[in-house]
């Protein structure tokens, strides 16, 4: 008896190509915030591979943690910011003045 296959036949590649990337990185949507359109993308834990600093709470987002990526729709994509999901949802209730300790990293 042969073992059961857990993946589709055909080498594991799909014909859709770009659809896999959309599934991995999430579907983009636009939200209005502070009078500006923002592109928002939910990133799953499997796609998060680096450390990021959340602008909402100034805490680090470690690799493997699901989070939100947001940037201004008409701005450069290089201005993307990675937020904790709770921080993104509470962005209107948070103050704009974050206080860092002297030893906090500036990245």
From TrEMBL:
Q: What is this protein called?
A: ATP/GTP-binding protein
Q: Which domain of life is it from?
A: Bacteria
UniProt feature, compositional bias: Basic residues: 1-10
Region annotation (Disordered) maps to 1-27
């Amino acid at each position: 008896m042969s073992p059961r296959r857990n993946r589709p036949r055909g080498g594991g590649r799909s014909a859709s190509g770009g659809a896999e990337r959309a599934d991995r990185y999430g579907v983009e949507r636009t939200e209005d915030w502070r009078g500006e359109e923002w592109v928002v993308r939910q990133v799953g834990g499997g796609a998060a591979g680096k450390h990021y600093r959340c602008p909402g709470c100034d805490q680090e987002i470690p690799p493997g943690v699901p989070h939100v990526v947001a940037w201004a729709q008409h701005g450069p994509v290089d201005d993307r910011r990675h937020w904790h999901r709770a921080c993104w949802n509470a962005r209107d209730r948070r103050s704009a003045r974050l206080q860092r300790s002297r030893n906090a990293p500036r990245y």
